[in-house]
Write a structure and sequence with these properties.
Elements: H1 2-25, H2 29-40, H3 52-84, H4 90-128
Helix pairs in contact: 1-3, 3-4
């Protein structure tokens, strides 16, 4: 059973690592248009470098959320398997329930982190005009 769980976890880790560059390197068409407009015109509605910090922070939070989401899914799956296979053993049941609880708390913390970071970035940009 441990070998199967280890195999599944390693396959998902390899899969998620292989998709990470796609998420990071994917640019929007708006950025490409703004880059083209910036080279040909002096007046445009495109932001120059002021939003770069916000974009990097938001991208980092999104990547962090994906990683934590994948980890939480693995925690729920392994905890569920442990709970089902505990065969009435109180210690194993308690451990499985704790892992499910910790996974849920982790997801809530990550969701709140996204809200807090967005709130702070909006306040900073409104105050400083960046």
């Amino acid at each position: 059973m441990k070998k199967i769980i280890y195999l599944l976890m390693s396959m998902m880790a390899i899969f998620s690592i292989s998709l990470a560059p796609v998420a990071v390197l994917a640019g929007s068409s708006t950025d490409a248009v703004c880059d083209g407009v910036a080279t040909t015109s002096t007046t445009s509605n495109c932001s120059t470098g002021t939003d770069a910090v916000q974009k990097v922070i938001k991208l980092a939070i999104q990547i962090f959320q994906m990683i934590v989401g994948i980890i939480a899914v693995f925690m729920f799956i392994t905890a569920g398997l442990n709970y089902v296979t505990s065969a009435g053993d109180g210690a194993k049941t308690k451990t499985a329930k704790d892992r499910i609880l910790y996974g849920a708390i982790g997801l809530v913390v990550v969701a709140l982190a996204q809200v807090i970071v967005s709130f702070v970035l909006n306040r900073v940009s409104a105050t400083t005009g960046l």
